[in-house]
Write a structure and sequence with these properties.
Length: 352
């Protein structure tokens, strides 16, 4: 028995030593993303604002209901459909961890969950306010030895300030089966994006302040660390000036006017300068050489060398969300001309 115990300790020591190696193998360099997509376009009857997908055959879009039975649509790999179940839900955000573990944020502080069917699971308040809109969601999974321990989910947005604008920032954190309202002192505006950077473990967020009749709407980028929010960028919400953040392969990327950057040692490091004035400061990607750029007249792509349009829009459009997979990409597009809600689906043919 003693020999077995000693062998166990030796194996454990070797595992810890290898796991804690301070000189890990350098990961392979990102490869240029391909551009040879075949595109199809589907129309969704209702206005949709957010998209999330688990796989190319399991993609969801949600939006405020013009019809309470058509505020949630799902793509099964063949077609987009809704279950046409009447629900008193006003969805503004969606995020999931698996095909049967999906969360949806609604107005009035309400959270819904999908485990095969949709059910309301929480009605959150802050400082007595229930008029909360969860504008977006993001999360990750805590792992140990390759096993998922707990979901780590953030739902965020705002509630109404004294002037009637949604500027009172809200961040709700769900962990180990409990919801907690985080302290948002120091923030003012709608929290629209929030990600944790896998490199420096800091949380970065994009906050839009509604100016109302007094001044222009503005965008601010904050860093959250050690319980403190620090503003690291701010400008007016205008084409060419506005800012956005995106999580690309675990790293937060910043679209700051015409510059796309990462953040290293508390400084922005330029990845790319976008000279095209049609760039609208929204990006999505799978790697440093595989970044999609929203343009006012289409969708462009950066492959580490140059920027090239993948397609042009016939009219001015906005991209509300994206879901990216190895060979498939989905973009949720709103076209003001004709009031159309479109899904652009690009698929790479690998000869299979």
């Amino acid at each position: 028995m003693k020999k077995i115990i000693n062998l166990t300790y030796i194996c454990l020591f070797l595992f810890i030593s290898l796991s804690c190696n301070n000189d890990p193998i350098t990961p392979p360099e990102d490869q240029p993303g391909r551009r040879d997509y075949a595109w199809t376009v589907d129309t969704i009857p209702n206005y949709m604002t957010r998209m999330w997908g688990y796989s190319p055959t399991d993609v969801w879009v949600v939006g405020p209901p013009g019809d309470f039975s058509k505020s949630i649509y799902h793509f099964d790999g063949l077609k987009w459909s809704t279950d046409e179940v009447f629900r008193l839900v006003d969805p503004h955000s969606i995020f999931g961890f698996s095909s049967n573990n999906i969360y949806m944020g609604s107005s009035n502080g309400r959270i819904w969950h999908f485990d095969g069917t949709w059910k309301e699971i929480a009605a959150l308040t802050k400082d007595g306010h229930s008029d909360i809109v969860f504008d977006n969601m993001w999360g990750t999974t805590t792992n140990l030895f390759g096993r998922a321990l707990s979901n780590d989910l953030y739902a965020f947005g705002a509630y109404v300030d004294e002037k009637g604008n949604f500027n009172k920032s809200i961040i709700a954190h769900y962990f180990s089966g409990k919801w907690e309202m985080l302290n948002t002192d120091g923030l003012f505006g709608i929290v629209v994006h929030l990600y944790k950077n896998s490199y420096d473990k800091k949380i970065y967020m994009q906050v839009i302040e509604i100016g109302g009749a007094e001044r222009l709407d503005s965008t601010y980028i904050y860093e959250y660390a050690s319980g403190k929010y620090s503003e690291i960028y701010g400008d007016e919400w205008l084409q060419g000036l506005q800012a956005d953040i995106s999580l690309i392969n675990g790293e937060v990327y910043f679209a700051l006017g015409s510059e796309i950057a990462t953040r290293v040692d508390n400084k922005f490091q330029t990845v790319l300068k976008v000279d095209n004035p049609n760039f609208y400061q929204r990006i999505w990607g799978r790697g440093s050489k595989d970044i999609f750029l929203m343009m006012v007249d289409g969708l462009a792509h950066y492959n580490g060398t140059d920027i090239e349009y993948l397609f042009h829009y016939p009219f001015h459009t906005q991209i509300a969300g994206a879901a990216l997979f190895e060979n498939d990409v989905f973009f949720l597009v709103y076209q003001s001309q004709g009031n159309l809600n479109l899904i652009y689906h690009g698929k790479i043919n690998n000869g299979g």
